[in-house]
Amino acid sequence: MDHRACERAGITADKLRWLIDSGRWQPLFPRTFATFSGPIPYEVRLEAALLYAGAGSVLSHETAGAEHAICGRPDSIHVTVPYHREVVDQPGLVIHRSRTLRHSDIVVPRPRRTTVERTVLDLLADKPSAQSALGLVGDAIRTRTTSADRLRAALQQAPRTRWRRVVLDALPDVAAGAQSPLELRDAQLRRRHGLPAGRRQARRTGEGAEYLDVLIEPYGVHIELDGRLGHDRATERWRDMRRDNRSELAGLRHLRYGWADVVDRPCQVAIEQATVLRQQGWRGAFKRCTDCPDALPPAL
After folding, report:
1. For the chain, N or C: smaller number of CB within 10 Å?
2. Long-range contacts: 225-230, Cβ < 8 Å, 24+?
3. How many helices (H) and strands (E) does the chain have?
4. Are residues 196 and 282 in contact, defined by beta-carbon separation less than 8 angstroms?
5. Mind listing the pLDDT tens digit for each residue in 155-179?
6. Is the pLDDT score of 241 beyond 90?
7. What is the per-residue pLDDT across 11-43, written as a single tens digit (0 to 9) for each?
8. What's the CA gap between 183 and 148, in Å, rounded?
9. Beta bridge partners of 96
10. Are 252 and 222 in contact (CB under 8 A)?
């Protein structure tokens, strides 16, 4: 409840002061109150933040991202208000002002929050690198709360968005199944060198379901990319080894790369993959880029 609701209910200033001093009510943000004692649920704090921020306010940034399950819950609540309004930050509450917030950017059901697409665009502004920007986009699409087409449409209407060109260039690969920044780099690498794209996140059943990062079925090649957190844990290593062994048993040639390979020596990775693909019957044209070594293996 806020002070305006108190006035409409006939609660005087003295009565309100008594309710707070006695512990029956609890102050949240200025002129907003929880009308009960005891622990305050997070959802109540969200509603109080919107009451305090006033007309046109909406949950945004990391707070909206947490509501959409595309990022973790932040320490502070983030709220966006129309640019013409002056609202002051409070402890535990960060206010953003926007000239571009439209009604179509808002999910109306309570609590009011920005759409997934608008939330992603807002969060991109604080990403320090292309890797972290693409990781955010991959997470949003992987959770199926949005799609590559919807994000592309949002970016086309927001020309000043940070990392806009990087994300737009990567969206076709994200839509094709690339789930991490490393997979996106791999997709760009194979496209630049004319290698078969393969099928991403190919589902394989047997001892339970598992997903292969890149499966180039016509030539029997399986490529794994160790780009996610957790690959150094023992359980992850054992799982990966079992998956790799099953590929060998299935007659698939198996290659594995990490960040150091794809980022620091991309041309060598492309040459290795092309060499194995040649051995498996691929007859496509390998495309030399400006960074490729002068001498290529004879098969290429």
Report:
1. C
2. 225/180, 225/182, 225/183, 225/186, 225/256, 225/257, 225/258, 225/262, 226/182, 226/256, 226/257, 226/258, 226/259, 227/180, 227/181, 227/182, 227/183, 227/258, 227/259, 227/262, 228/180, 228/182
3. 12, 11
4. yes
5. 999 999 999 998 998 888 888 777 7
6. no
7. 888 888 998 899 999 999 999 989 999 999 999
8. 16
9. 80
10. yes
Residue position matching structure tokens 């180039």: 216
pLDDT at 269: 94
The tokens describing 192, both together, are: 């630049």
Q: How confident is the model at residue 132 (pLDDT cuts 50, 70, 90)?
A: confident
- With DSSP H G I counted as helix, E B as strand and the rest as coil, what are the percentages for the chain, rounded to 5? 45, 15, 40
The pTM of this model reads: 0.73
Q: What is the C-alpha separation between 139 and 145, in angstroms, rounded?
A: 9
- Of 6, 8, 38, which is closest to residue 24 (Cα–Cα)? 38
- The number of angstroms, rounded, from the C-alpha of 231 to the middle of its chain's C-alpha atoms is 19
